[in-house]
Every structure is written in C-alpha cells, then in structure tokens.
Amino acid sequence: MAATGYSAVIDRLMNALGRLPGIGARSAERLAHHLLKCPPEEALELAEAIRAAKDQVRHCEVCFHLTEAEQPLCSICRDPRRDQATVCVVEQSRDLIVMEKAGTFAGVYHVLLGRLAPLSGIGPEQLTIDALARRVESGVIRELIMATNPNLEGDGTALLVANRLGQSGVRITRLARGLATGSTLEFANRDMLADAMAGRLPL
After folding, report:
1. pLDDT at 157 over 70
2. 26: domain range?
C-alpha cells in the first residue's frame, strides 16, 4: 500500500471510513480530519451510536425490517391499523422507507434482504423467500405486491417469487412502470416508453 504520510492510527481510520459505500479515499480523508478536529464527545457519540446500532438492531421476526432487540416485531407489523392481507415485497429496508414516505400504502411488508445476483454469489437461499412462503401458507395474505427494483436482477427476483408462490392462490402483482404523472414524452427514455406501452390501461 502506498505511503500516505499519516500515522498508522489515522491510516486505519481512513481505511475503515473508505469501506463505507459511496465513500472514496478523498472523502474518507476529509471525514477522518473532521473526526480528529471535532470535540471528543462528538466523535465518541458517533462511535457509541454505531456500537448501539450493531448491538441492538435486529430483523423483525415476521417481515425482516429493522427493529430493536426488545421488540421482536417492527413498528409496522405491530400496527393494528395496517392491512395484514396485503404485503409489499421489497429488497431492502431502505426501499420500505421510501414506500412509507410516499404515504400511499396501508398494508405490511416483506423484506427479502437482497436480490438475486448469481455473479455475486447471491441465490434464493440468501434471501428470505422461504419465510415469505411460510407467511403465504398461513392463509392471511391475499395479495403480494412485488416492489423489487426495475432492473434485470430485481425483475429476476420478482419472477422467482412469482414462480415459487404462483400456485398458492395468492394474487401476485408488480408495481406499474412507465410515464410519471406530469412528465412529457419528450423526456421519456426507451425503457420508460416500452413499460408504458406494455402496461397501458383502458380509458
């Protein structure tokens, strides 16, 4: 490894920060300098927040969203106002949060904890598809809404789930795609137009 001119302790800090997603070498260096210059209590508060999150955050026993250790079910699964018969299937908890911010879905979720990526060694056994199948077998669920990302891996994951659970009698749908409300054809790309044409609706 090339010499950086910093001490071994600072190099270790920068290397650790640089392993975070979206943080390159320059950003890691800036963050390291910030942590060294800030008051000790601020830096230690960050360290304690990281330690607490690693110690206390777990996956919900039902949907695999994030929850705290003393709450085996997440806040959404515990909410009696949610429609337990309609399940939105997402790849990660951050996708669930995006859906919740939209404020248009009143059902519950299932987090797959990833998506099929054979080249990265991620197959069905690394996902929570078996747990989803058990939820469907309970007889409570009427509809699964596949909200995996609209790309090759996300589509492959949705197709796998649909094939696995297609004989269960549960309705399986996919999020609509295409032209967004308020957009114009001029700025639509080929994939958006293809999705919009394939998913056209009667007037």
Report:
1. yes
2. 8-55
